[in-house]
Amino acid sequence: MSMLDWIRTPRPGTSPLGNGVWRRVNERFARAARRYRSLIEVVPARAVRVELEEVADELDDVARLVRDVCERAQAAAPSNGPDVPLGPGDIYFDVHRRLARAATLCARASESAMMARVSLRTKDAAGVRDHVDAARRTAKQVRELVEGALI
Q1: Per-residue pLDDT averaged across 107-112, rounded?
Q2: Are 139 and 55 in contact, with CB atoms under 8 Å apart?
Q3: Distance between CA 141 and CA 144 in Å, rounded?
Q4: Is residue 138 part of a domain?
Q5: In a domain, 4, yes or no
Q6: Is residue 64 within 8 Å of 150, Cβ to Cβ?
Q7: pLDDT one-digit tens code per residue, 114-140
Q8: Which of 36, 45, 105, 134 has a CA-to-CA distance to 141 between 20 and 30 Å?
Q9: The pLDDT of residue 14
């Protein structure tokens, strides 16, 4: 084993998330939440930005919940590879599916925030309202999915 191979080899137990699917789904959600926050920082209208920041706060709160769910799942069904542990009644598969879907919806909230920004530029007030409301609805769906994944 060369020195580089030794450095790149993941160490078991280095994190409560392990090195498998639970770490990856947590990082995927965290990236989506950070992306949302970075998109709304450049929204020019203060009133709209404040509304979108409320959604960002909600997504940040859910990101902490996702981390907790992933830590619990890693403790109950450790994963250090690409396969999702099934568990009784395929419960961990369902947990992973919910968390992955929540990460996708978090990215969709980012799309809504971007479209609100575009609507601001084109002075489409109705479009701004629609996209802000869509971001709120999506954040609500994200929370429901993650709360349904609690084990």
Answers
A1: 97
A2: yes
A3: 5
A4: yes
A5: no
A6: no
A7: 999 999 999 999 999 999 999 999 999
A8: 45
A9: 60
Residue pointed to by tokens 């078991």: 12
Is 31 a member of any domain?
yes
Task: Read off the CATH number of the domain in which 52 is found.
Answer: 1.20.1420
Average pLDDT, the chain: 90
Residue 72 included in any domain: yes
**pTM above threshold 0.90:** no
Integer CA distances (angstroms), 67 to 24, 73, 101, 128, in order: 11, 10, 15, 32
- Concatenated DSSP letters of 19-77: TSHHHHHHHHHHHHHHHHHHHHTT-S-HHHHHHHHHHHHHHHHHHHHHHHHHHHHHHHS
Range of the domain at 70: 17-148
Overall size of the chain counted in residues: 151
Please report, for residues 26, 87, 97, 143, the alpha-carbon distance to residue 90 in angstroms, rounded to integers and kept in the order given: 19, 5, 11, 22
For 10-19, write each residue's pLDDT tens digit: 555 467 888 8
Please state, in angstroms and rounded to a whole number, the distance separating the CA atoms of residues 26 and 28.
5
Residue that is written with structure tokens 């909230």 in the block? 109
Give the number of domains in the chain: 1
- Looking at residue 134, its amino acid is A
